[in-house]
Amino acid sequence: MFESDKPHIDNSRCDRCAVRDRTVCAVAHLAAENELARVSRTRRVPAGETILAENAEASIVGNVLAGVLRMTKTLPDGREQIVGLINPGEFFGRPYSETVEFAYEAATDVELCVMDRRSFEAVVARNPELEHELLLTTLDDLAFARERMLLLGCQNTLERVATYLLVMLEHREQLFADVALQEHKRVAVSAITRRDLASYLSTTIETISRHIHHLSRIGVIRIIDSSRFEVLAYEMLLALSGLAREDLRLFRKAPLFGRGPRLVALNGIIQSRQTPVLTSVKTRSSRIGHF
Amino acid sequence: MFESDKPHIDNSRCDRCAVRDRTVCAVAHLAAENELARVSRTRRVPAGETILAENAEASIVGNVLAGVLRMTKTLPDGREQIVGLINPGEFFGRPYSETVEFAYEAATDVELCVMDRRSFEAVVARNPELEHELLLTTLDDLAFARERMLLLGCQNTLERVATYLLVMLEHREQLFADVALQEHKRVAVSAITRRDLASYLSTTIETISRHIHHLSRIGVIRIIDSSRFEVLAYEMLLALSGLAREDLRLFRKAPLFGRGPRLVALNGIIQSRQTPVLTSVKTRSSRIGHF
DNA sequence: CGCTCGGTTGAGACGGTTCAAGACGTGTGG
DNA sequence: CCACACGTCTTGAACCGTCTCAACCGAGCG
User: Are residues A113 and A212 in the same domain?
Assistant: First the structure.
């Protein structure tokens, strides 16, 4: 469907890809990379739009190039839970199933690399290294999902907020891992709306607001604006999260960075190329394209 | 390590395996099956014992032959969450990682088919059909884990109890899918202790007790004993769970039965061979072997 | 200017936990 | 065989965290 639509045998597009080294493409041999390029196309989607509806046909899969996707599940009476966020470089969609179990929606304006699901599966079938990479990614996602069960099941709302700040901070720290080492401020940045954050942490915007201001009042963080927070007392924040230090390891490798080792090869480029992602929160309401 | 310990090139053991057709072994070609048999051995573990401790070396992987494993994660202050239950025919352990993120413990007396992790990975690397099967299983597990996030994040405690009963009922219904079709009573059986159930649903044994008795009082279920419940009003129970009917589909394919199609080939044998599993709850306190 | 929208703050209500006591069944030892 | 102890489950009452509802605030915008 998408193949015939617009072939796009355009490898230069992949050469310019900001997240190429963090997606499944990173391990693709030359032939596989060409095959993937042939079946993929980029697509911009404004915040709020649905990419795949709950229980709809699993027509496409792909990678997030910029922005954040949310995976949601809704109960018949309207209660909604965000069961996952998908950051740049991460894979989205449901391979090997006719339907998707969850809705995939743009939480911010996003740029996607989209492929027809069956075409993608065909490429994977011909390239074992892709299948292996997909397996590794899925196993990491599974561990991450289970860690989130602990968050939803055991941690109180203050601990959840503290955990979220720690994870957002971790993202930033990794981003500036070698450049300006230890020089910059420790700032946690949230790319999603408060409403989405409430759903993600399974609480309300009011409760989040109260806890954020409580953390500010006791001097653990400084509120820069409603989506950026300077962490003044890291150890205190960690204690308030209720987690063990090593539990953060799980969060570290998941969103925004693919799995560990690959990141090293990226330093330097990551800053300039990441810029649009980091600023996307500011341009969130402006429409950047059409579905 | 395990290989040299006791070679066990014993395919007759696999021929006698009650869950062979529901594990990863089901798709193994002859050569792969022999390789798996060579690196595996069966092991009995009494209820309560730890198979792999949290953050310990991921030394082994395997399949559950009988009984139930629980995966748990514990916060520094002692709060514990059961992030998953592993039923007969299901895979356990953490391939492609040096450590396990969660503890694996015997929730009931269990019988396991155990393999050295690295040996297993080596067999998988030589047999693409195994890797593909592992990927499909992991993707299903991931969808199931996310469905559980909805349960922990959105459903109240009554809805969680109702959902659990529906899932347990679903197990039984599938078990007797063709034999005695529609003849038997609709009975939901819980194999785990109330304490584990409370942790799994992230509530307390008191709350579960209250809800179970409430459901009994309003005539939705009949309490046979503390672990068996006859479902008298299925539609009512479904309504009380807050879920859409199609959400149960996700639970259907997960625990106890592997993925759909394979089950068909099992009918008939499943009853006699499953017996020890179903009665294991009664012999729970008796030790059936040594670690 | 007044609208909407996102966020903040307060007061009250409610669901679920906690604590404590009692009931039940089961295995053990006198 | 009974008495006792123990673990599991049940039931009640008080307590607490979080949600709900509502009012308020400030920024951006037509």
Answer: no
For residue A136, is it within any domain? no
Contact B81 A154 (CB under 8 A): yes
Look at chain A and report how many structural domains it folds into. Answer: 2
Q: With a cut of 60, say whether residue A250 has pLDDT above it.
A: yes
Q: Are A117 and A58 in contact, with CB atoms under 8 Å apart?
A: yes
For residue A142, give the nearest of B136, B145, B154 by CB distance.
B145
pLDDT computed for residue A59 by the predictor: 97
- Indicate the residue among A69, A99, A127 that finishes a domain: A127
Low-confidence ranges of chain B (pLDDT < 50): 1-8, 254-291
pLDDT at A124 over 70: yes
The reply to whether residue A150 touches residue B94, judged by beta carbons under 8 angstroms, is no
Of A167, A175, A217, A213, nearest in space to A192 by CA? A167
> What's the domain range around A164?
144-258
Write out the DSSP string of B2-27: HHHH-----HHHHHT-TTGGGSGGGG
For A79-97, what is each residue's pLDDT tens digit?
Answer: 999 999 999 889 999 999 9
